[in-house]
Amino acid sequence: MRTILLSILAALFLAVPNVAAHTYLDTTNPEDGAVVTETLQAIELTYAGKIEVGSTFKVISSNGEEIETVSMDLVDGVLTGTFDSPLPNDDYTVEWNSISSDGHPLSGKFSFTVDAPVAEEPVEEKVTEENEEQVEVNETVENNATETTAADEEESSNNTLLYIVGALLLLIIIVSIFTIAKRKNVK
After folding, report:
1. Residue 86 clears pLDDT 50, i.e. is over it
2. What is the strand order of the sheet 78-82 is part of?
3. DSSP 82
4. What pairing do the DSSP bridges indicate for beta strands 25-29 and 56-61?
5. Cα–Cα dist 49/76, whole Å
6. Exposure string (b/e) for 101-140, b if CB count within 10 Å is 16 or more?
7. In the 8-state DSSP scheme, what is residue 51?
8. Which residue spans within 35-138 are E strands per DSSP?
9. What is the pTM (predicted TM-score) of this model?
């Protein structure tokens, strides 16, 4: 009997290190059952021990659609999956499958809800026929005003040029008259 008890105790002591060697999912971000009120673009699974490459998880929305991760990184027992854009408001389930450092498969799932504030989109003004007609009238008035301003500027520029040419001609005539008059006086 004593040999049997010693054998059982020896087997238990040998089995305890193997049980302790198994890892388990320690924490998740977001936590199981959490309501996330900020934008969420990554999920983290933190394990109590080492896990192997090939460990993954998938995120499933309330309508059963799998949300694709753009990357899955494993660093120091933390498995992080990131998404292209923040998850929309919905209920999600994360199904994870991991491989512990001793090769044992681990799996499980947890769920959370995203309820982040949604930025309001600017409300577009409904365009009615009356608004369209007003817009056309405003565009016509603006175009006419622009054309009038351009014509006024061009006319003003032309007038200035005429004044300068006229002043030069007058100056040439006056100088010519004085030159002719001086020559007559000299003779």
Report:
1. yes
2. 25-29, 42-47, 78-82, 71-75
3. E
4. unpaired
5. 9
6. eeeeebeeebebebeeeeeeeeeeeeeeeeeeeeeeeeee
7. B
8. 35-36, 42-47, 56-61, 66-67, 71-75, 78-82, 90-99, 105-114
9. 0.54
